[in-house]
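To whoever is on call:

I kicked off a structure prediction for a single chain this morning and the downstream step that reads the tokens threw a length-mismatch warning. I double-checked the sequence; it's 96 residues and nothing unusual in it as far as I can see. Pasting both halves so you can look.
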Amino acid sequence: MSSVAEQLNSVLHKTARLIELCNALQEENELLKQENEAVKLSLNASKAKISDLDEKMRVLKLAKSIEGTSEKTLDIKQKINDFVREIDKCVVLLKK
């Protein structure tokens, strides 16, 4: 009989230990989820910054190309208007 009681105590002790381990793993999992979310936010911010810098670079290239040409003022204004329309379309797509 004593052996059954010892086995029961052993099973209870191991069960309690498993519950403790499970709780610890759940806490660790929650922390990892929070860290993952923070990394995702940082990644999205970086992507947005890259996109903004790419757009600025494109505008600078455009300004340099307009600066180097000898086109008439109306042609330059037309190009600028075309670029503004294109940017507006991109903004509309980004809002979707």
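Update from on-call: the warning came from a stale cache, not from the record. Cleared it. Sanity check on the structure: The chain has a mean pLDDT of 87.
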